[in-house]
User: What shape does this take?
Amino acid sequence: MGGLQTDAELVRRALAGSDAAFSRLIERHQAAVRGFLRRMLGGGWAEADDVAQEAFLAAWRSLRSLREPAGVRAWLCGIAWRKAQDRIRSARRGAARDNLWLETVATPVGVSPEDRMSVEAAMAELPSDVRACVALCLADGWSHGEASMALGLPLGTVKSHVARGRARLLKALGGPDDA
Amino acid sequence: MTPEQKLAALFAAEAPPARDHAFQARMAQAIALRRAWMTVAALVPWVIAAVAVLWALTPVVGPMSDSLGEALQPAATTLAGAAVTVVAALWLSRRFNGRFRGPFNAR
Assistant: This one.
């Protein structure tokens, strides 16, 4: 029965004090938020999950500031985006942690470890806002409008960031150089 | 594989599982901890107020306890403090029951 509830209904119940409803929201959106942060931060998944936890806690505290309950996924990713920016600016990120992650992540079938490292390097070289647009639109299949709303960037900027990021990543994989 | 297919495969490899009970359990623990701190922070002003009231009542309670006898003074003071604490706790628990529920209670 709980699985049929809309995000708006869950937000309403969570605002009324239901932790079960907020837990359901976490269950429903954790993959999107954590996936976005993994691609955004690029380093170890543990770091992305730490930031995801901070983002969900911040969302729990500021649930009343959510103006459009139906757009909770974009709102959550917006909070995660700001947390990720804070993390990138801080000195808490370590190269050793990133290298450890590169050694432990399994490479998909048909993709060489060199390709994976090339894409990782290309992602790391992208400006953070371009990386965020790539993570949402290319990797997660968000529309440009959704990404624009979540990241607080103009729609045209999101479109150009996605195109630029995609060209850079494909070039890293041996694609045409049209960046 | 084309570069587009490789890119899609790499992105898919980073995707977290649709359901992750370990992550949800960590979130539940973090929220419960945050809620506990919020409850403690909400109680602090009331504890301070209760101490101030008891301090203000000391001149009244003191002579009364003298008349009842020196032996009853510690017991009376302790009982008064316990009564104030119980009343405050009951009132606060009712007040916060709706606002701060237990961690991940079903509703």
